[in-house]
Specification:
- By secondary structure, the protein is an alpha+beta fold.
- It has a single domain (2-11, 24-207), classed as Acetylcholine Binding Protein, Chain: A (Distorted Sandwich), CATH 2.70.170.
- It has helices spanning 2-13, 54-61, 78-88, 180-186; strands at 27-37, 43-52, 95-99, 102-103, 110-117, 120-133, 137-142, 149-153, 159-162, 169-173, 203-207.
- Strands 1, 2, 5, 6, 8 and 9 form a 6-stranded mixed sheet that branches. A 5-stranded antiparallel sheet has the order 4-3-7-11-10, with no helix packed on it.
- Helix 1 (2-13) runs parallel beside helix 3.
- It is globular.
- The termini are far apart.
């Protein structure tokens, strides 16, 4: 379907091969996340909600079949949601986690769906760790290395722990605002040769006894 192909090309496939002219953000996403724990105290994965900006939401839904004008049901957005989560794997789900300093990997997303409210698209999905992990230090970042997409955590309730041991502590470290020098580098093709987006990533840290 044309709208699926357009969406896929626009955000998830093209990210890996973005041309230098697109160094700065072209899509803005507001993130809220939960870190989920099992009864034995092991972290099992993440629940993400990614709210797209209004311009991109309009672009992504253009031409989608709908029964009611201006309204999209979860069922009408199901194919689009599937394309999203399937394609995310090629970009490591834009989620980077470490347990006690060692990289963690993720399994296939589950419980995924899109909702449309006040002309805004939000993608919801669960991202399980390949294996549950017990860690004294768990760190997580959500960002696009190319900085084509700007991922910013919500101001209100950005991250929560679900069923975590009572002694576990959560902290967030937001990035500093972009400096003038960074802004100049952002228009330089050389910026894309490295992990540029990490400079603007919020760092989530969970410490458990």
């Amino acid at each position: 379907m044309k709208y699926v192909d357009r969406f896929l090309a626009a955000i998830f496939v093209s990210l890996a091969c973005t041309v230098p002219a697109l160094a700065h953000p072209h899509v803005w996403v507001t993130v809220t996340s939960q870190i989920v724990y099992a009864a034995d105290g092991a972290a099992t994965g993440m629940r993400h909600s990614w709210e797209f900006d209004d311009v991109y939401s309009t672009f992504a839904t253009e031409g989608l079949p709908q029964k009611t004008k201006g309204v999209f049901t979860r069922e009408e957005l199901a194919d689009l949601a599937k394309v999203n989560v399937t394609s995310l794997k090629d970009s490591d789900f834009f989620t980077f986690a470490k347990a006690n300093g060692k990289d963690l990997t993720f399994g296939d997303p589950t419980d995924y769906w899109l909702n449309y409210d006040k002309e805004i698209l939000t993608l919801h999905f669960t991202l399980p760790f390949t294996s549950p992990v017990k860690a004294k230090d768990l760190s997580i970042e959500v960002y696009d290395p190319t900085y084509y997409i700007d991922f910013a955590f919500a101001d209100k309730d950005p991250v929560a722990l679900v069923s975590a041991p009572a002694q576990c502590k959560l902290s967030l470290h937001k990035p500093e605002e972009m400096s003038m020098a960074q802004g100049q580098k952002l228009s330089d093709a050389a910026a894309l040769s490295g992990n540029w987006g990490v400079n603007f990533a919020t760092k989530i840290a969970v410490t458990c006894p």
